[in-house]
Amino acid sequence: MPELKTISPTDPFDDSIESIEAQWNEEDPKIIQAAQRMLRVNKLTAEEEEKMKKIDLQRGKEEEYNFVTKQEYLFYKNLPELIKHYSGLYVWFEDEKVKDFDEDEVLLCGRVIRSDEVRARKVNAIYVNQVPTFN
């Protein structure tokens, strides 16, 4: 399994598109292009993120919001490496580790939410995303 870049839970992070792309150490331009396409299409604008945060905070879901926001940042930060090893697959990604993966998002999410690890924790959130297909 490849080694992914790490960040401590207390590190502040700049999740702007430019900041994330600047952290990629990939030399293959095709992998970079695939990662950039996904990042630029899927990444919310600052305005959209603020709206989502407001909704989550109004619902008392601050911990879940913070958890998912951090996992999303780490996912995008490691996207070129993920593309190399999990192209086209859905991954359960937490703390810079792929914990499980599948071609079927529903099957994967079913396994994840039934896992002892998820059931035992305080935060009621998971992060699953599809890695872009790379040919």
Summarize the structure.
This protein is mainly α and 135 residues long.
Topology:
Elements: H1 17-22, H2 29-42, H3 46-58, H4 62-77, H5 79-86, E1 90-94, E2 97-102, H6 105-114, H7 116-120, E3 128-130
Helix pairs in contact: 2-5
Q: What is the ordering of alpha helices and beta strands?
A: HHHHHEEHHE
Biggest β-sheet, characterized?
A: 3 strands, antiparallel
How large a portion of the residues is in β-strands, by DSSP E?
A: 5-15%
Number of helices: 7
Distance between the termini: 20 Å
Structural class given helices, strands, pairing?
Answer: mainly alpha
Oligomeric state, counting identical vs distinct chains: single chain
Query: What are the segments in which pLDDT stays under 50 over at least 5 consecutive residues?
Result: 1-10
Gyration radius from CA atoms, angstroms: 15 Å
Q: How would you write the strand order of the largest sheet? A: 2-1-3
List keywords for this structure.
single chain, disordered N terminus, 3 strands, 135 residues, 3-stranded antiparallel β-sheet, mainly alpha, globular, 10% strand, 7 helices
Describe the structure.
- By secondary structure, the chain is mostly helical.
- The protein has helices spanning 17-22, 29-42, 46-58, 62-77, 79-86, 105-114, 116-120; strands at residues 90-94, 97-102, 128-130.
- Strands 2-1-3 form a three-stranded antiparallel beta sheet.
- Strand 1 and strand 2 form a beta hairpin.
- The radius of gyration is 15 Å and the shape is globular.
- It starts with 16 loop residues before the first helix and ends in a 5-residue tail after the last strand.
